[in-house]
Design brief:
The chain is of the alpha/beta class. Helices cover 42% and strands 9% of the residues. It contains 14 helices and nine strands. The strands form three sheets. Strands 1-2-3-7-6 form a five-stranded parallel sheet, sandwiched between helices. Strands 4-5 form a two-stranded antiparallel sheet. The chain has a two-stranded antiparallel ribbon with strand order 8-9. Helix 2 (56-81) packs across helix 3 and helix 6 packs parallel to helix 7.
């Protein structure tokens, strides 16, 4: 087995190994890794089998997902800098954790994201341009979550962990767990960052999920920084131990290794689908950009740290591996053109958005008509009508 430093600036163990929640092999402080930062495949006694079916075409698909996610993300960041968006939370550097884990999901599995899971949205088939509406202030940020089994972004940090636990309990009561029917058994995934583990809602979600063995995967992307607070100041132990404290099987994975993230999520989903209950996953990654476009990361982290993680870029890692197994330059050239078109489409779409009608604020507040909303709408309509030439009468 190749041994490499996968944790970088994190204060926790740099040991690369494997931990299997059911057999207890290894320790959760070890990090599951199947692709080294230099692009070499690593054999793992537990998790390699979960990814053996990923042939070159499948790996090229994972690379494409990550590359297009990054292109859209950088375009959205540029749009905010140009005044077209009020805010944007970049996911630069976290593409492998998101794409790898999301590709392991079945269509019927349901996702509760935070506000940075652009790669998961892409994999689930969400039109990425819809994400821009919230950050432009054009809409409340909602869509038909059932169309892709992907909920709307959650801005209140950690609150969706409770939503995921509740949804998972509902799946149990509907009898959609442990049937053995691959097209029926369902699971739920809550994505959140390291900072959210300090929120009570995340702990409460794990309490409920563990107590009833709900089919919920708590997927923590430890990107090292909760805005300007490093992980070492958030927890005196590795975050993966948070799950163990609730009696939830837990595993730590190299979050910049898209193959390992796929394999670890695949195992967690198998456990959830079969009725084995929840799993806590800590994906060790790095936020290469700012927390949001209102943040300046140079004020709290060093260039040396950023360079350390830049050498572990998830896209560069997989590209090196693909080239070593025969993927030619034509693939990357065509993908670059596709990415540029995606960026252009996002830019054109955003700039063409018109100002919403003020009365639309009353739309989609509830799923069904509500008398109070209709009274408020009528009042607002009368209020607007009281103006003539912009002057109240």
């Amino acid at each position: 087995m190749i041994t490499t430093d996968t944790s970088g600036a994190t204060p926790y163990s740099d040991t690369v190994g494997s931990h299997h929640p059911d057999t207890g092999s290894g320790s959760p402080d070890h990090t599951v890794q199947l692709l080294s930062p230099t692009g070499e495949r690593i054999t793992d006694a537990v998790y390699s089998a979960r990814a053996d079916h990923l042939d070159r075409a499948a790996l090229e698909g994972l690379y494409r997902d990550m590359a297009l996610t990054r292109r859209f993300d950088t375009e959205a960041t540029s749009l905010q800098r140009q005044g077209e968006l009020g805010l944007w939370p970049p996911c630069l550097g976290q593409e492998a954790a998101q794409v790898g884990s999301a590709r392991a999901l079945r269509p019927q599995d349901f996702v509760f994201p935070s506000y940075r899971e652009h790669g998961v949205a892409w994999v689930r088939g969400v039109d990425m341009r819809q994400l821009l509406l919230l950050y432009r202030g054009r809409e409340h940020g909602g869509w038909d979550a059932r169309a892709h089994n992907y909920n709307v972004p959650t801005l209140v940090i950690g609150s969706h962990a409770l939503h995921a636990a509740g949804y998972g309990m509902g799946i149990q009561r509907d009898g959609d767990v442990g049937t053995g029917d691959r097209d029926r058994d369902r699971a739920v995934v809550a994505y959140f960052g390291d900072g959210a583990t300090s929120q009570g809602d995340v702990s409460e979600g794990m309490v409920f999920a563990a107590a009833v063995s709900a089919p919920v995967i708590f997927f923590c992307q430890n990107n090292q920084w909760a805005i300007s607070v490093p992980a070492a100041k958030q927890s005196r132990i590795p975050l993966v131990h948070r799950g163990e404290g609730f009696g939830i099987p837990s595993v730590r994975v190299d979050g910049n290794d898209v193959i390992a993230c796929y394999a670890v999520m695949a195992e967690a989903l198998e456990r959830a689908h079969s009725g084995g209950g929840p799993t806590f996953i800590e994906a060790v990654t790095y936020r290469m950009g700012a927390h949001t476009t209102s943040d300046d990361p140079t004020r709290y982290r060093s260039r040396a740290e950023e360079e350390h993680w830049r050498q572990r870029d998830p896209l560069a890692r997989l590209r090196t591996h693909l080239e070593s197994i025969g993927t030619g330059e034509d693939f990357f050239t065509a993908l670059e053109a596709e990415a540029e078109q995606l960026g252009e489409d996002a830019r054109s779409y955003c700039r063409a958005l018109d100002k919403p009608d003020a009365e639309s604020m009353f739309d989609h507040v509830y799923a069904t008509p509500h008398s109070q909303i209709e009274r408020d709408r009528a009042w607002f309509r009368d209020y607007q009508a009281s103006f003539e030439d912009g002057v109240a009468r």
